[in-house]
Amino acid sequence: MARKHQRHSLPHLSLADVKARAEWAAREGRFQQALELAKQIYKVLPSPENQQLLRNAYLGRARQLREQGCQRDAVTMLQGALQLGDADPAWLEQLAEELAVCGEVRLALETLRRVSESPATGRVLGRAADAAVRQAPAGRQLLPEMLHADYDRIMQAWAHLEAGQDDQVRAVLQGIGLRSPFAEWKLLLRGFLAYYHHDDVRALENWQRLDPERLPARLAAPFRFRIDPAYRVAQQPAAQVALQKQADQLQGSPLLQLLRAIQAVLARDGSLDQAFRLAGNVLPLLRAEAPHLVPRLAACFYWAMITVGGPDDVPRYQRIFGAPADDPHFYRLNALAYERAQEAAEAHKYWQKFERDVAANPSVWPGGQADRARALIWCHMGHNAARVPDEEQMKLLPPFLRHHPGRPRPLSPSAEQCFRKSLELAPDQLEPHEALFRHYLAARKEAKAIKAGHDLLARFPDHVPTLEAMGGLLSKEGKYAEALALFQRALQGNPLDRRLRGRVGTAHLLLARAHAEAGRFDQARAEYQAALAFPDGNSASVLCKWAACEFKAGDTARGEELLGQALAESGSRLAVAHSMLIEAIRLKLPGPFKTRFNQEFNAALAEPPTAAAAVAVADTVAAHQLGGVTYRGQKTHDKKVTAYLDRARQAEFSEDQLERLGAALLAIRAVKLLRAYCQLGARKFRHNPQFPFLEAESYFVLGPSRCPSWKVLPLLDKAQRLAEALPLDEKQQALLRDIQQRRDMIGLLSPLSLGMFRDMFEQMFDGDYDDEDDYDDEGDY
Fold it and tell me: What is the DSSP-derived secondary structure letter of residue 324?
């Protein structure tokens, strides 16, 4: 029985439901279904709103048919839309433009005449020009007579261009005005003239002016894709692939297609079997057409073998490309492969073989390049050797790593020997100097580090990192004047670095105290005055130290004056009393001063805690511990400060104050208190990544044997998530780098990461922690 069609009856759906379905189908690109539903709606209720829905469906379906190559069906659809009667001008302009694109120029112009003084006339004529050129030579008849002359000029220009008659092309194009619908074609042809003469700048000047909706812009796109990086990057990935394919087809050779196939295979992970087969096929053609590219292709395979290759790939490479001149025995390749596999000892052996290969082949490394290359190899070996812990460093690792049978053994030659060999070969290179200096610093060999630092600065006197590090070393040695000179030189090289300014100020203070202790009060005063020029928010501390110097010199009035200035500057009675008590002890002031400041310190501690006072005393304790400053009774004072900070958790802290306090607590390793404040900061300031990061740091300072990665990793995840949401600036980038470094450190604690170790924990292992301190008695000063 024949099935009955009920296209116009809507027995089960309301008119509103059918209209919603039509609109949904149009949004999804199902214009045929949308058109059928719109016809049903318009037949039931021929309102202006439903008529507009029907018109949009007609237009959408026509565009869809044109894009599918069904030009005649698209024109039929548009003619059907015209039968709906008069409409608003915007609709008629769209219809006319679409008719012109489909090649129905006369009908498009007739439709446009129904709109008086339409601004769309230029667009419609432009579309008509494109359709006419596309259908040449029959396209001329599509155009009104007024456009025939410009059409003929474009056709003549194409013919002259194909014949290589550039002057004739320019002469013909001169007749096309800026307002002509064929102006876009004029720009296209002028761009091709420049392109064929390799004048890419001039070609882009023309093609960048093309309307992206017109046919000339689409014709120029593959060529512009080749020479315009900004245009290439701006395209969607699918468009990039399509344009690259079109460009290769238009101007490429079979060789280019084969090379792109190799590129695609090398970009995928896995074996190199297919890539080697393709290379064997393309190599004869490559040697014939572009022999200069053979070494580059060989280099691509060489480095691919390091990441995805296997032992069988080396003879395969040698059979196809031959042995590379700079690595004839593949020693470098093997060394890099063993490094990637985290087998440091085997990599060390192959690097030494490669170094001997370089020394034995001076013809490959002319003009002194061999010594430079060997120096780089030895320096690289030194870095590898420095990553493997020596016996002293091994003691700091947790037992499951320290006693593991697969733990790495120290490499031979050692890091020190490798760096020194590199220096012998290239003494004028910065990297081996700096590597040796940093190696001694990490190994805590201060005397050797100072000598290496002086050697480096003799050749590179303005190297800021070494100037700063040497200043720190000499400060620990008590050579404050030399340290200050180095910090000042470093600051000259980077005058806007706030941290360096702080170190210069600290060096002035250390030198001032040395003068004060020796009774050279005038020199001390000069240094205190200089330190005030580098306050870094710590003027009150400088004034306290200066006041103590005046008390020692016997100028009590001046000391009291400075003390009053410090109190006004600080605003914290506790911070000033704490600083003065420390200075009274360190400068061995008379007993009455010690008693006075001790009483003031204890009285201030008994007052209700404030956020400002808590931050100030924590900064003071941290500054002394970080500077290696010790004095009699220090542990007792630090214990009292810690108790005060514990009570201060009830105070009202700002976000900045909590960050500063957290950094100070980390410096003094008050880990339990640090975690409490971090949790407080995380509750009050939920978007600040510093608090979860500082809490993670509180576990890192315990050392690798006590660091619980199961607690630390979630904190680092949270810190990274919050940091990535912050605006991009230097502070955010530094925090993200620190987070990644801590992740690397956690990875090194895994028993599966025994191949290579780093000494990242070294600077964190020294010192005690707040839960293990053994404090002095009250009067131990």
Answer: -
